[in-house]
Write a structure and sequence with these properties.
The protein has a single domain, classed as RelE-like (YaeB-like fold), CATH 3.30.2310.20. Helices cover 30% and strands 31% of the residues. It has a five-stranded mixed β-sheet.
């Protein structure tokens, strides 16, 4: 079963500064891998991020939440800045 993908509006801003090839690779991996198996491909987060998941597309991280039949992509940023407050 493929999950429905939804993107928070701020994700567009996250992707805006990335090179086209990198952006295409990240979106393709989300649609191909993450949408099919979000718990198997991702890792649960801890601490203040508990309840959310992360998926790695080196060197970027995709932060998302999972509901019954959908995934909400919350943030896509470089691994060094993804957990920082902006």
């Amino acid at each position: 079963m493929a999950y429905k993908l939804f993107y928070k509006s701020s994700v567009e801003k996250d992707l805006k500064g990335l090179p086209k090839e990198r952006k295409a690779k990240i979106l393709k991996k989300i649609e191909k891998d993450l949408a099919r198996d979000p718990k198997g491909k991702g890792k649960p987060l801890k601490g203040k991020w508990k309840g959310l998941w992360r998926y790695e597309v080196w060197p970027y991280r995709v932060i998302y939440s999972i509901s019954t039949d959908s995934i909400l992509i919350l943030r896509i940023r470089h691994r060094k800045e993804v957990y920082r407050k902006h």
